[in-house]
Amino acid sequence: MIPYAVKEGFAGFRRSSFPSIASTSAMTVALVLVGLFVIVTWQARSVAEWLTQRVGEVEIFLEEVPTDVAAALHRRAQAMPGVAGAVYISKEEAQEIFRADFGEEAEVFFDEFFLPASIKVTVEPAYINTDSLNILVAEFSSWNRVDEVVFNRSLLARVQGNRRLLSLIGMSIGIIVLLASIFLVANTIRLAIYTRRLMIRTMKLVGATDAFIRVPFVVEGMIQGFLSSILALFILWVLHYAMTFYLPQLEATDMYTMVTFSLAMVTAGLMLGWVGSETAVRRFIRKVSLH
């Protein structure tokens, strides 16, 4: 039965060119919508994580200390639990950063090094929250030769609140896109199968079982789903390339992510074709009258 089903599935795809193209196009649109949502959500999460990492930085301003003392404080900061990295910024380097940031307006300060040396601490993602950062700040503030420890507490709270809101909105939009895609595909496949209602009725009249009738349609649906996933992947990678070309600050896609995403899209296409065809033909076969 399986060889027959596969053969008839390919034959049905070739015979009913317009319904097949309509179903494949509908599934392609659905997969592009879902895939585009996944890509945008992934990029938005990456940007949010980068922003949170930047907002969660802690800066330790030092008193006037010798170079060896500053180096010791730097090493101590790097060894703290929750610290991903630490960079020592000398007074001279701080002055250069100030000049780069403020340009000509910094001319008035060029004659003296008025900015203190500091240690910029990058915190591990798991520690980027108000409670953990307060503990780190309290620890750094207790050290000798430390003048002040700062981090942008209010901005961090806003960023974390916006991340939660973004996740909620993204989840809601994702559910809507998924349901709309399933509805679009199911109705298109149902119409495609309806065009072959006379063939289904004839097969039932000659004694074919429901499974015998149904399996070739399922195979045909999976062929459409596979082709749809290939077309959708082509469209999505073109769109993704355009996004990263015009917005180079977006995160580049590594090979592992590309392969995983491609396999997921192909699997989604096969499943969409299988479930859509199975549901539509099963329901239609039950309604076919032999009288």
Short description:
It contains nine helices and four strands, in the order ααβαβαβαβαααα. The chain has 291 residues and is α+β, with helices and mostly antiparallel strands. It has a four-stranded antiparallel β-sheet with strand order 2-3-1-4, sandwiched between helices.
Q: What do these coordinates show?
A:
The chain is of the alpha+beta class and 291 residues long. The longest helix has 42 residues, at 153-194. The model has no long low-confidence stretch (mean pLDDT 77). It has helices spanning 2-15, 17-55, 67-78, 91-102, 130-141, 153-194, 197-205, 210-246, 255-287; strands at residues 58-62, 83-89, 118-123, 146-150. It folds into two domains: 2-51 and 167-287, no CATH class; 57-151, Alpha-Beta Plaits (2-Layer Sandwich). The chain has a four-stranded antiparallel β-sheet, sandwiched between helices. The protein is built from nine helices and four strands, in the order ααβαβαβαβαααα.
Which tags fit this structure?
single chain, 291 residues, alpha+beta, Alpha-Beta Plaits, 2 domains, four-stranded antiparallel sheet, 9 helices, 72% helix, rod-shaped
Strand adjacency order, main sheet: 2-3-1-4
- Total E-strand runs: 4
The general outline is rod-shaped
Percent helix:
over 70%
How many H/I helices?
A: 9
**Overall pLDDT, averaged?**
77
Tell me the domain tally.
2
Poorly predicted segments: none
Which class best fits the helix and strand makeup? alpha+beta
The end-to-end distance, rounded to whole angstroms, is 28 Å
What's the story with the biggest beta sheet? 4 strands, antiparallel
Roughly what fraction of the amino acids lie in strands?
A: 5-15%
Oligomer state of the chains in this structure: single chain
Tell me the series of helices and strands, N- to C-terminal: HHEHEHEHEHHHH
Radius of gyration: 30 Å
